[in-house]
Design a protein that fits this description.
Structural class: alpha+beta
Number of strands: 9
Oligomer: single chain
Number of domains: 1
Strand content: 25-35%
Order of helices and strands: HEEEEEEEEE
Shape: elongated
CATH architecture: 3-Layer(bab) Sandwich
Distance between the termini: 73 Å
Strand order of the largest sheet: 3-2-1-5-6
CATH topology: minor pseudopilin epsh fold
Largest sheet: 5 strands, antiparallel
Radius of gyration: 23 Å
CATH class: Alpha Beta
Length: 179
């Protein structure tokens, strides 16, 4: 005698399979978000490294090595800017723009932190590199350590931590960098 599945057994099996599949898909999309957010933070860090490299090694469009290069961040935006500081004032001016970078998937820059002073209430941050030193000049030398936060649409966050020595790192928590 051959026995098959009843309709109830089949519905329970399909429900269990659907539940397991939805858990896996949910976890996978969260993992994807975390990976993308980490990659965005590394892209920001590489842009800072690019400004450092240009500031030390690259000849300007006028043929000299005198102009510093920098990165400008603005709180609450999806973009940041790579610029040449032609007037040597240590700040970004619109006519100095070389390239605008856009964070993907709706991520925004938030917060921007002065880790040695005012905390995470900065509206903008300028980091400049000037030949011959690889050191970062953060806000014209008034800040020694800074962190730039990147927030994803789903609420995940990464921080690009920048030292005045020109070193940087990527962290998951702001508390990790307030050492």
């Amino acid at each position: 005698m051959i026995h098959g599945f009843t309709l109830i057994e089949m519905l329970v099996t399909v429900a269990i399979f659907a539940l397991i599949s939805s858990v896996i898909i949910t976890r996978n999309s969260k993992f994807d978000d975390e990976v993308l957010l980490t990659n965005m933070a590394y892209d920001v860090a590489l842009s800072v490294r690019k400004a450092q490299s240009y500031g030390i090694n690259v000849r300007t469009d006028q043929g000299g090595f005198d102009d510093p290069y920098g990165i400008f961040f603005e709180n609450g935006t999806t973009t940041y800017k790579f610029f040449i500081d032609r007037d040597n004032d240590g700040f970004y001016d619109a006519n100095e723009l070389l390239e605008t970078y856009t964070l993907g998937r709706g991520a925004i820059i938030q917060p921007i932190c002065d880790l040695e002073g005012t905390g995470c209430d900065l509206d903008e941050l300028t980091i400049v590199f000037e030949r011959p030193e690889p050191d970062a000049i953060i806000e014209r030398g008034t800040i020694g350590r800074a962190a730039v936060g990147i927030v994803s649409v789903r609420g995940g966050q990464r921080y690009v931590f920048i030292e005045s020595t020109g070193q940087f790192s990527i962290r998951h928590e702001l508390e990790e960098v307030k050492e």
